[in-house]
């Protein structure tokens, strides 16, 4: 009986233990159940700053604004998958986006730098609450405390701690916003946008490098001259090892390289896609952002960083601007493109597949990339009275304004430039020797282009099989300047951080190894160049033989008489059809550049004399030839005559070339051939 009772008690205890075990397993399973991100349609995106006007720059900060109750509750992570729900309103748990711990985990970087590093942040206007906002951010994430005098310094563009730009306090900003004076309100709104930009720069830098000194240099306005003065003061007097610029605008006559050797200078690539195609207005499009296009800076593109349990899961090109994606239209995309002013540095021109990039010898943007998509954005604290209302002052921000300070601070963690004159060279050297030191961003499974996309994005996964449309420059015609690819490409550069190895200077052993690699590459390039020149010579000889044979066959053949045809006498010759009524109207067909001319276009800036072209004429005749260039600014473009000549054409296949030693600059061109009494034929081409 006693044994039976004990057995029953044991059995009962066993059942309790089993039940408890099931409850524990159930609880663990419930916690392990993944929580998917909210669809992108629950949000919209708002630019902090207005588009740049001529002679001005704009900031690159984009706010992610919730539009549904679920998004406003912030109970789900943004753009990531976690194994538990995020408490509503808890920034430290990730409710507003990327936290410092997640940033370090995702990119495999430490929290502090060895030794003293100063990061300068160049911005416009004044953020009166910069120090207190930084303190609130540090408190939320339990970062090392930072007193303003100890590791945060603020000056104007002249280096003065007093006489800071407008506004001096929140009250002044609020008064200006409500003044009713159109000019005053416009400046106040612009200053409010840069207020948020300043908070993003400071907090992203602090999140990446917790013990770095931060120097905020505030320009008095967004004018190019004021920002350049702030940049120069920071480089020449501020003593920083790194400078981050989260702003940009069109390349203009005043754009000069940011030539400050031995300092890491980063610049945002832009938020409107390849050559700004995704900008709201037409006049805001079709340019590569400066100072990112300067060959002396590290141009930083934006990515969509996907995390799982805080760790790096995948990374793709950021492009939320698909035309057919409905709600995604205008959400932004990482900038980039070929510079129209600056030549690429040798280390960029010597990357594998450079000929496929599409920039010729011009500078390509970007060099490297980091998280920039607002949907996978950064948790930001700001007390600015102008943004969307938030009682807690927490927001989610992205844009390449986030990418630039992350990369500048990663260089700081790695010790700065390490004596390298232009630190982008370090990235290119390491990419050759240690390609695994960066996350290589390709187009294998998700969006891989920052060009204009014809396919929509999936609301749940944010993925797409996007391919650029063939519509002018926005399509980039399959070139790597706007399509992700293994190795170097325009949208993501060489890739995103994966530890500090790619940002650290080369060791003597690595330098010696790189020298051998580059010497071998130089030999290969020389052989390829010789092969190309030999092929060109063969083509030229064959063309000469064909011309000589055709001339011999048709020697003395007079041009046709046709008094009923319309002869083109105006210039430049139109690209439209010329009406001919006579029975012997001249017909031209097969107008094209010769193989040698195509080689010249792809290899370098060609001379006018290298533009050989071919066509077929129905009879021997005289033809007028014009070369025109597309010039002007934005919406005010026209064709400008570059060269005009007149030549005799033989009947049948013929080839000719223009004369002139001038080299053609980067741009769009139109070649028009008009036979006497016949139809004008035109072809268009671009020079990288």
Write the layout of secondary structure elements.
Blueprint: H1 2-32, E1 43-47, E2 58-59, E3 62-66, H2 69-73, H3 100-107, E4 118-124, H4 130-141, H5 148-151, E5 152-156, H6 170-177, H7 182-208, E6 213-219, H8 224-236, E7 242-245, E8 247-248, E9 264-268, E10 272-274, E11 298-308, E12 311-317, E13 333-343, H9 346-349, E14 362-365, E15 368-371, E16 378-381, E17 394-398, H10 400-413, H11 424-433, E18 438-439, E19 496-497, H12 508-554, E20 588-593, H13 595-603, E21 612-617, E22 621-633, E23 636-649, E24 652-657, E25 667-675, E26 681-687
Keywords:
688 residues, alpha/beta, Immunoglobulin-like, eight-stranded mixed beta sheet, 13 helices
Task: Quickly describe the structure.
The chain is of the alpha/beta class and 688 residues long. The protein is built from 13 helices and 26 strands.
What does this structure look like?
The chain is α/β, with parallel strands linked by helices and 688 residues long. A hairpin with a 5-residue loop joins strand 25 and strand 26 (681-687). Helix 4 (130-141) packs parallel to helix 7, helix 6 runs antiparallel to helix 7 and helix 7 (182-208) packs parallel to helix 10. Strands 4, 5, 6, 7, 9, 11, 12 and 15 form an eight-stranded mixed beta sheet that branches. It has a four-stranded antiparallel beta sheet with strand order 1-3-17-16. The chain starts with a helix and ends with a strand. Helix content is 28%, strand content 23%. Mean pLDDT is 82; it is low at 1-32, 323-327, 470-474 and 555-584. It is elongated, with a radius of gyration of 30 Å.
């Amino acid at each position: 009986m006693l044994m039976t009772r004990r057995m029953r008690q044991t059995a009962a205890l066993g059942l309790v233990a089993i039940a408890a075990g099931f409850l524990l397993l159930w609880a663990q399973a419930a916690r392990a159940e993944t929580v998917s991100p909210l669809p992108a349609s629950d949000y919209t995106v708002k630019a902090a700053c207005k588009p740049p006007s001529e002679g001005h720059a704009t900031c690159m900060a984009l706010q992610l604004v919730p539009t549904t109750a679920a998004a406003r509750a912030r109970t789900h992570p943004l753009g990531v998958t976690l194994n538990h729900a995020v408490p509503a309103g808890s920034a430290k748990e990730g409710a507003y986006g990327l936290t410092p711990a997640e940033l370090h985990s995702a990119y495999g970087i430490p929290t502090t730098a060895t030794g003293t590093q100063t990061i300068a942040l160049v911005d416009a206007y004044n953020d009166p609450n910069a120090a207190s906002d930084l303190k609130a951010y540090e408190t939320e994430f339990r970062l090392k405390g930072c007193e303003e005098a100890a590791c945060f310094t603020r000056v104007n563009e002249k280096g003065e701690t007093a006489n800071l730009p407008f506004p001096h306090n929140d009250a002044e900003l609020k008064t200006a916003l409500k003044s009713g004076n159109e000019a005053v309100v416009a400046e106040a709104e612009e200053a409010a946008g840069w207020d948020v930009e300043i908070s993003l720069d400071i907090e992203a830098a602090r999140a990446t490098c917790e013990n770095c000194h931060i120097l905020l240099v505030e320009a008095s306005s967004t004018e190019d001259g004021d920002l350049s003065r702030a940049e120069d003061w920071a480089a020449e007097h501020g003593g920083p090892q790194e400078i981050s610029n989260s702003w940009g605008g069109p390349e203009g006559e005043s754009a000069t390289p940011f030539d400050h050797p031995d300092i890491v200078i980063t610049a945002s690539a832009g938020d409107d896609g390849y050559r700004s195609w995704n900008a709201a207005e037409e006049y805001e499009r079709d340019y590569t952002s400066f100072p990112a296009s300067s060959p002396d800076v590290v141009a930083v593109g934006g990515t969509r960083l996907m995390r799982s349990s805080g760790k790096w899961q995948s990374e793709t090109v950021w492009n939320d601007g698909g035309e057919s994606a409905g709600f995604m239209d205008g959400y932004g995309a990482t900038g980039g493109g070929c510079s129209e002013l600056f030549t690429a540095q040798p280390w960029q021109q010597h990357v594998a597949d450079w000929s496929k990039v599409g920039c010729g010898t011009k500078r390509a943007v970007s060099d490297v990339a980091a998280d920039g998509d607002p949907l996978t954005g950064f948790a930001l604290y700001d007390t600015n009275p102008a943004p969307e209302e938030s009682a807690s002052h927490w927001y989610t921000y992205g844009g390449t304004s986030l990418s630039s300070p992350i990369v500048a601070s990663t260089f700081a963690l790695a010790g700065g430039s390490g004596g390298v004159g232009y630190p982008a060279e370090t990235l290119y050297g390491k990419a050759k020797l240690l390609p695994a030191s960066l996350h290589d961003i390709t187009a294998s499974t998700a969006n891989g282009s920052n060009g204009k996309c014809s396919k929509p994005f999936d609301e749940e996964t944010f993925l797409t099989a996007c391919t650029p449309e063939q519509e002018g420059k926005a399509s980039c015609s399959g070139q790597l300047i706007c399509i992700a690819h293994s190795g170097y490409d325009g949208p993501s550069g060489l890739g995103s951080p994966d530890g500090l190895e790619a940002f650290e200077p080369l060791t003597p052993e690595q330098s010696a190894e790189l020298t051998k690699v580059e010497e071998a590459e130089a030999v290969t390039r020389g052989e390829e160049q010789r092969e190309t020149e030999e092929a060109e010579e063969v083509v030229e000889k064959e063309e000469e033989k064909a011309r000589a044979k055709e001339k011999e066959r048709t020697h003395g053949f007079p041009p046709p008489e046709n008094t009923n045809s319309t002869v083109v006498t105006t210039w430049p010759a139109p690209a439209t059809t010329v009406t001919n009524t006579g029975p012997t109207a001249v017909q031209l067909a097969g107008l094209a550049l010769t193989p040698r001319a195509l080689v010249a276009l792809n290899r370098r800036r060609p001379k006018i004399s290298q533009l050989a072209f071919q066509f077929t004429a129905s009879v021997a005749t005289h033809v007028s030839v014009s070369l025109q260039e597309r010039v002007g600014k934005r919406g005010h473009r026209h064709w400008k005559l570059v060269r005009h000549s007149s030549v005799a054409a033989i009947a049948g296949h013929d080839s000719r070339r223009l004369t002139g030693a001038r080299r053609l600059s980067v741009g769009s061109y139109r070649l028009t051939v008009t036979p006497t009494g016949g139809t004008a034929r035109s072809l268009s081409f671009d020079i990288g």
